[in-house]
């Protein structure tokens, strides 16, 4: 095989791999699809900050709250430190507001993952927005 044919083959392989990686990075930048979220929310997320509420917006950073999603059983647990505060079932769905998460009988929240942060957002009703990180 000629050197130029080998170079073209290597270059083509590189372009395919590079294109695949770009698509993967773009898809993880802002995830809002139910099927993707169902996979990506799995595990423990620690609170980064909370924004509350409506026109008198305040931001609280840190804290010891975390949320754990078991995607096989579609359950969640909210922890304060190591102590379980709340747990139950969750459901993901899509509507005109976007992808929603329903935690038991609470109001549904908009959910998305952007730049590695998990947003659970009730601010469309002038309620709080919780932002979590791994």
CA-based shape:
elongated
Quickly count the domains.
Answer: 2
* Average pLDDT taken over every residue: 85
* Low-confidence parts: 17-28
- Helicity level: 25-40%
**DSSP strand (E) fraction?**
over 45%
Q: Describe the sheet with the most strands.
A: 8 strands, antiparallel, barrel
DSSP summary: helix tally? 2
- Quickly give the structural class: alpha+beta
Output the strand order for the largest sheet: 2-4-5-6-7-8-9-10
What's the SSE pattern? HEHEEEEEEEEE
CATH architecture of the largest domain: Beta Barrel
Characterize the structure shown.
With 134 residues, the chain is α+β, with helices and mostly antiparallel strands. It folds into two domains: 1-30; 34-133, Lipocalin (Beta Barrel), CATH 2.40.128. Helices cover 25% and strands 47% of the residues. It has two helices and ten strands; from the N terminus they run αβαβββββββββ. An eight-stranded antiparallel beta barrel has the order 2-4-5-6-7-8-9-10. A hairpin with a 2-residue loop joins strand 8 (109-114) and strand 9. The protein is elongated.
């Amino acid at each position: 095989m000629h050197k130029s044919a080998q170079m073209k083959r290597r270059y083509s392989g590189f372009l395919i791999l590079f294109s695949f990686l770009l698509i993967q990075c773009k898809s993880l930048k802002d995830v809002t699809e139910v099927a993707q979220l169902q996979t990506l929310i799995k595990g423990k997320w620690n609170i980064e900050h909370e924004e509350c509420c409506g026109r008198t917006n305040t931001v609280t950073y840190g804290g010891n709250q975390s949320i754990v999603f078991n995607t096989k059983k579609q359950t969640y647990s909210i922890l304060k430190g190591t102590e379980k505060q709340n747990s139950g079932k969750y459901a993901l769905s899509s509507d005109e507001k976007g992808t929603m998460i329903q935690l038991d009988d609470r109001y549904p929240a908009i959910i998305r993952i952007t730049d590695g942060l998990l947003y659970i957002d009730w601010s469309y009703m002038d309620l709080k927005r919780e932002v979590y990180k791994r």
